[in-house]
Amino acid sequence: MNLRKLNILCLIAVMFILTACSKEKNTLTVGIMTDLDSIPFMVAKQQGYFPDNVKLEVYQSPVDRDSALYSGNLDGSISDVLAVCLAKEGKFPVYATSKTNGRYGIVSGKNSEITSAKLLEGREIGLSLNTVIEYVTDSMVTADGGDPALLKKTSVPKIPSRLELLQNNQIDAVAMPEPYITAAGKAGETIVNTSDEYSINPGVMLFTKTAAEKKTKEIKEFYEAYDKAVEYINSTDPKDFMPAVIKELGLPDTALKVELPQYEKTTLPAEDQVLNAMKWLIDKGMLKQEYTYADLVKEIK
After folding, report:
1. Beta carbons within 10 angstroms of residue 247's beta carbon
2. What is the DSSP letter of 188?
3. CA diameter of the chain
4. Distance (Å, whole) CA 138 – CA 9
5. 153-203: per-residue pLDDT in tens?
6. pLDDT 10s digits, 88-107
7. Of 55, 223, 237, 256, which has the fewest Cβ atoms less than 10 A away?
8. Which residues contact 247 (CB under 8 A, 6 or more apart)?
9. What is the layout of strands, in order, in the sheet containing 173-177?
10. Distance, CA of 281 to CA of 97 (rounded, Å)
11. What residues contact residue 215 under an 8 Å CB cut-off, 6+ apart?
12. Under a CB-based contact definition with an 8 Å cutoff, are residues 261 and 178 in contact?
């Protein structure tokens, strides 16, 4: 073989390798939680809608999830508008790229006189302070004509501990997400209010600025799979998919009895939901400056 032919073959081989490499997709690692927001993502995985490059990591604690995000081990995660604002101020740029469909609520004890959010005034409520749970609680109390400043808030970070205090009559009420609201209701506790009743929805899917800019194609495919999962969930009996979801997400068995929300396809969070949460953070002294909607939300095109 002469030198010219050898060079041509080498060039063809290099081009083939480069083409093959260019077709390889970046891994997209996403953190999800043990809540309703995460169900479409787990369904997308179990139904094979996600491409092979998508990796889901399940977290029991938002602290562990955020640690993974800030250390660079996650490209994105299920989170909330408050976290997006705080990350922005902390010089860790992330964007809310879609809203999620979760549900938060207030639960009081069996046969409790607390049957509305306003009646929490002067009562002790267990929740996680300075979090989306406290924000939603304050928002529901305000919407019901009450004053959140009159609540006696007790920090109880772990949800099972909140329920135990409530069931032992050591606290008047607790705030928590689904499916734990339904679990408490099935155990005889009183479901006072849920965020659905007041159209309060601070839950979002976020991605880091780096991922949003460098993994745009992968995120678009991720959302295409999410939308397919939403179609599947909304048209399928939950008994056909929830047992497998419960097992993999580590949800309580009572999650089978939860009325799932009408999940929406990929949609940006509403501007008022973003700005209301930001104002709450500023009023609490947790955020020093205001941001625009465009500073915090990005549509992946």
Report:
1. 11
2. T
3. 94
4. 70
5. 999 988 889 989 999 999 999 999 988 898 899 889 999 999 999 999 999
6. 999 999 999 999 998 999 99
7. 237
8. none
9. 152-155, 124-127, 173-177, 104-108, 190-194
10. 20
11. 26, 28, 75, 207
12. no
Do you know the residue count of the chain? 301
Best CA proximity match to 211, nearest among 23, 24, 25: 25
* b/e burial code for range 85-114 (CB count within 10 A of at least 16 → b): bbbbeeeeebbbbbbbbbbbbbbbbeebeb
C-alpha span between 197 and 158 (Å, rounded): 25
Phi and psi of 193, rounded to 5°?
A: -150, 160
Backbone angles phi, psi at 55, to 5 degrees: -125, 125
Taking the alpha carbons of 83, 84, 90, 92 in that order, is the dihedral positive or negative?
positive
Contact 92, 114 (CB under 8 A): no
Per the CB < 8 A criterion, the answer to whether 201 and 195 are in contact is yes
Q: How far is CA 65 from CA 130, 177, 246, in A?
A: 16, 17, 19
pTM value? 0.85
Rg value, the chain, Cα: 22
Tokens of 149: 């400043």
* Inter-CA distances, 227 with 29, 83, 196, 233, Å: 18, 24, 21, 10
Whether residue 223 contacts residue 298, with contact meaning beta carbons closer than 8 Å, is answered with no
